[in-house]
Design brief:
mainly alpha, 2% strand, 3 domains, Serine Threonine Protein Phosphatase 5, Tetratricopeptide repeat, two-stranded antiparallel ribbon
Length: 369
């Protein structure tokens, strides 16, 4: 019935093979993309500005021609400044050179402070050529020792140095994410907190993609999502943690947390339904929570108000929007909803009242910005 070229089984196999190749290609492309995202030498440096002060006291010299020839590193280090601390200057100037441990430490220090330093690639190539590739482990160990002593800046610098050498180094990524988390949790500066929080979250997310079997990344990423009010993401992340973790104590803790966020997850589903224009579904989900412990959470009343406004129940919408303003008196979106409802009802007095409030608040925001 079918010719050789039209054999449906053969065609199906060809199609399946093509799909598999496409999937493999997509997976490989994503792996490359992730490696690039994790590379501290190329990604936007959110937190380096807070570490630059630690360059004070670092001076630079150069290796002698004799040393470069002896170590066979002239191609890498000729004309490249070598970082030194005070204690290294005299021995270096006297020709004795630096101890290997000092050399590693100084290069790691400079790279960790500024991964995009002009000579970072030279330092990486030099360290990998002269020392065991497990050099990352030694630098990591020093960073962890400092983190234990709560010397978080210094620990952060060494963890970043390991990532200059090996951007997808699991323990370097994890330690860096953890120390960024510890640093923002100890701060009261809003910008500092925002930058370190974003950096920590990025690396926990990258860990789950680059090293998906590493369960602890899901543990901390879940907390990061929860603190941002992203309860559905929290739930999915922690369920993945439970699936992968072998730590009974942590698993017990996360099971308890999952029970605690069951209602917030349901509320978030309702809010997402409203945002997607499924107002009846959103109302059915959210309305019961107005009589729960979440009744004082103003976004709940806002989203319920939107549902009533979009389904032709203006009086109920007004009641919910006014409730929002008793809890958050400067919420512009609520005032805009109220002005629109009053305009539709031809109530010029109340429409004008809310339009004026909106204008005043916007002017105040512009003034403070």
């Amino acid at each position: 019935m079918f010719g050789r070229k039209d054999d449906p089984i053969k065609l199906a196999k060809i199609a399946a093979g093509g799909a598999a190749k496409d999937a493999k290609r997509t997976s490989a492309d994503r792996a490359v993309q992730l490696a690039e995202e994790a590379d501290v030498k190329r990604r936007k440096d959110r937190v380096g500005r807070y570490l630059k002060k630690h360059m004070d006291g670092i001076v630079f010299g150069e290796f002698s021609a004799g040393y470069l020839n002896k170590s066979n590193t002239a191609e890498i280090m000729k004309g490249v400044p070598v970082p030194m601390r005070k204690e290294d200057r005299e021995s270096f100037a006297g020709g004795a050179g630096m101890k290997p441990a000092h050399l590693i430490d100084n290069m790691a220090w400079v790279m960790g402070i500024d991964p995009q330093f002009r000579y970072t690639e030279n330092y990486v190539a030099f360290l990998l050529k002269l020392f065991n590739p497990k050099i990352c482990d030694a630098i990591l160990k020093k960073g962890r020792g400092l983190a234990t002593k709560k010397s978080f800046d210094e620990a952060c610098i060494y963890f970043r140095a390991t990532l200059c050498i090996k951007p997808t180094y699991l323990h370097g990524m994890y330690s860096y994410a953890r120390v960024c988390r510890a640093m923002y949790m100890e701060s009261t500066n809003a910008e500092y907190i925002g930058r370190f929080k974003a950096e920590a979250m990025d690396y926990f997310e990258l860990l789950t993609e680059i090293h998906p079997r590493f369960s602890q990344a899901y543990y901390y990423l879940g907390y990061a999502y929860m603190n941002m009010g992203l309860y559905t993401k929290t739930e999915l992340t922690w369920k993945e943690f439970l699936r992968r973790s072998q730590h009974p104590k942590d698993k017990k803790e996360i099971r308890t947390r999952l029970q605690q966020i069951e209602e917030p997850v349901e509320i978030e589903h309702g809010c997402n339904a409203v945002l997607a224009g499924r107002y009846e579904e959103g109302l059915d989900t959210l309305r019961p929570f107005l009589k729960s412990r979440f009744k004082t959470w103003w976004p709940l009343s806002y989203y319920v108000g939107v549902c009533y406004a979009r389904t032709g129940k203006p009086e109920r919408a007004l009641a919910n929007f006014k409730r929002v303003l008793t809890m958050n008196g400067s919420h512009l979106e609520t005032m805009e909803e109220l002005a629109a409802l009053y305009a539709k009802a031809r109530d010029e007095e109340n429409e004008t009242k809310y339009r004026k409030k909106i204008e005043l608040i916007r002017k105040e925001v512009d003034r403070t910005d």
